[in-house]
Automatic annotation (TrEMBL):
This protein's name: ATP synthase subunit b, chloroplastic
Gene Ontology MF terms in the entry: proton-transporting ATP synthase activity, rotational mechanism
Matching InterPro entries: ATP_synth_b/b'su_bac/chlpt
Note: In plastids the F-type ATPase is also known as CF(1)CF(0).
Membrane topology: Single-pass membrane protein
Classification via CDD domains: ATP-synt_Fo_b (cd06503)
Domain of life: Eukaryota
Quaternary state and interactors: F-type ATPases have 2 components, F(1) - the catalytic core - and F(0) - the membrane proton channel. F(1) has five subunits: alpha(3), beta(3), gamma(1), delta(1), epsilon(1). F(0) has four main subunits: a(1), b(1), b'(1) and c(10-14). The alpha and beta chains form an alternating ring which encloses part of the gamma chain. F(1) is attached to F(0) by a central stalk formed by the gamma and epsilon chains, while a peripheral stalk is formed by the delta, b and b' chains.
Pfam families xrefs: ATP-synt_B (PF00430)
């Protein structure tokens, strides 16, 4: 500190400075210097400082306004989302109810379809049984007829002698010839 003070003292002894000199009393010079600096700062800095504070205040107010608008928008979107959620929940309940009724309807349709199919199969079975019975009856009739024919032929062959046989053949040939002449 002594060096700084000595440099001011040596500056105070310039011959061209005349009556101008430096006060080396640090306490009185600091107070004067501080009051001058504060006066200059207040005089010139008041406008800048108030502008800075006003700008800061406006930014804070704008931020608050924007925050309020965003909050209002967020609340509005929340209400819309809640309304959509309620709507979706109602639709889900409706789908669930419709799904259960659709399942019941499909179940009844399946039961009815299966019943109709079983009924048709029963009818086909009965028709097949009747067809097989008729076929069996026809086969039995045919066999009875064949056996009766064999028996009749056997009886005829045993009863007919050669002469009677030749006369029957000649009579049949005669009938065929007369039928042929009628048709010609």
């Amino acid at each position: 500190m002594k060096n700084v003070t000595d440099s001011f003292v040596s500056l105070g002894h310039w011959p061209s400075a005349g009556s101008f000199g430096f006060n080396t009393d640090i306490l009185s010079t600091n107070l004067i210097n501080l009051s001058i600096v504060l006066g200059v700062l207040i005089f010139f800095g008041k406008g800048v400082l108030s502008d800075l504070l006003d700008n800061r205040k406006q930014r804070i107010l704008n931020t608050i306004r924007n925050s309020e608008e965003l909050r209002g928008d967020a609340i509005e979107q929340l209400e819309k989302a809640r309304a959509r959620l309620r709507k979706v929940e109602m639709e889900a309940d409706q789908f669930r109810v419709n799904g259960y009724s659709e399942i019941e309807r499909e179940k009844l349709n399946l039961i009815n379809s299966t019943s109709k199919t079983l009924e048709q199969l029963e009818n086909y079975k009965n028709e097949t049984i009747q067809f097989e019975q008729q076929r069996a009856i026809n086969q039995v009739r045919q066999r009875v007829f064949q056996q009766a024919l064999r028996g009749a032929l056997g009886t005829l062959n045993s009863c007919l002698n050669n002469e009677l046989h030749l006369r029957t053949i000649n009579a049949n040939i005669g009938m065929l010839v007369s039928m042929k002449e009628i048709t010609d």
